Amino acid sequence: MEHPKRPRHNVAALQDLITEWAQSNISQKQFCEAKNIPLSVFSYWRKKFIRQSTQGQHQPRFTAIVPEKQVWNFEITYPNGVRLNTGTCIDHALLHKLINLW
Question: Rounded to an integer, what distance in angstroms lies between the CA atom of residue 77 and that of residue 36?
């Protein structure tokens, strides 16, 4: 016993139908009954088109939060001529150790 093949749906025609439904003032169920389309097929393609149309439009809504710090750029010159420039924030304990190397 062979199963009857389901009819293929034309993607462009479905997009047109979904646009037509969106402009109407009737429910999906009423629209599908009037057009003789299974509601499940209509809903599937509607969701698929929505996903496709919004794909790539979502951008992360992250905001970088940088804690306020005082930036101290230190340059330490040791007696042997070696220079150390921190260039960024530096931990106070590490700075203390670096100063007291000599």
Answer: 85
| Helix, coil or strand: residue 96 | helix
Helix (H) or strand (E) holding 21: helix 11-23
By the 8 A CB rule, do 32 and 39 touch?
Answer: yes
Residue 1 lies in a domain: no
The answer to whether position 86 is within a domain reads yes
Indicate whether 31 belongs to any domain.
yes
Range of the domain at 37: 11-54
Write the pLDDT tens digit of every residue in 37-48: 899 999 998 988
Give pTM, 2 decimals: 0.47
As a dihedral over the C-alpha atoms of residue 28, residue 43, residue 22, residue 11, rounded to 10 degrees, the angle is: -130
